Amino acid sequence: MITPSEPSRTLLLLSDDGRVNRADEREALVSHLWQEHMRAPFPAGPAGAERAGIDLVLLDADIAGCVSSWRNNGGSLDGERHRILHRRITDLERILPLLGATEDPPYWRRLHQLAHLVSEAGPRSAE
Prior knowledge:
Distance between the termini: 31 Å
Mean pLDDT: 82
Structural class: mainly alpha
Radius of gyration: 15 Å
Strand content: under 5%
Low-confidence stretches: 1-15
Order of helices and strands: HEEHHH
């Protein structure tokens, strides 16, 4: 089951026949996390900083762009954005252990969760 970042809340959507609709569940959770992310200010500590050679502003912007595209395209990404997202997930996984308390780790964990949810949906097939 996919759960939001708040431990007390669980999003679960059922289809008309009572079964879990995974695509709807994923879209609802991405929407919830995206709204949280958009309300959160970018952490003041990392502005203009790099960790492990990764520019944190660009990391945030690249992932946010992919999530936004996924949402605007009905839950799908083209192959190029899917590759960018996977590369940026790897970058995010490198920097997460390096972040201090002043760098707002929950902000970055939420971004990581968003990136994973979107990447797990897979790329759109070539038409």
